[in-house]
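Example for reference:
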Amino acid sequence: MAESLHIVCPHCDAVNRVAGERLADQPVCGKCAKALFTAQPTDVSSARFDKHVGRNDIPVLVDFWAAWCGPCRMMAPAYAQAAGRLEPHVRLLKVDTEASQDLAARYDIRSIPTIALFQGGREIARQAGAMDANRLVAWVQQTARAA
C-alpha cells in the first residue's frame, strides 16, 4: 500500500490525503476541487500559518517579507520561480511580517527577507537575505535532504 501524505489546500485550507507517488499528478482538493499545487507561493496570515506548517507532511518553505523591503520585492519573482521548481515536494508560503507581526515575533525574525524551512511542524533551518531561484532551490534541496 502506498504511503499517504497530508497536504493542506492553498485555497480553502482543507487537509487532504494524497498518495506519495501521486503528488505529481495534479491532485485536487476534496473539498473545493481546486489544484493542491499551483506552482506559486501561498500568502498566509497568522490564522492560516499553523495549519499549513503543522499539517503538511511535505516540507514547508516560508518567506518572511514586507512590502516596504527592497530586497524582498527583488526576491519575489525568484521565490515564485522556485515554487514552480520545488512543488509538489515542498509547499512555499509567504508571510507579510507587517500584517502578521505575531509570527515575526514568535520566530524572532530580525531581518527580511528571511527564508525558513519547516518539516513536521518545526523549523529545521533558516537563511536571511535575498537569493536567486537557483540558489534558493539548491539550499532547500540540500537542507531537506540533510534533515
The beta strands are 4-8, 15-19, 42-43, 60-65, 91-96, 114-119, 122-128.
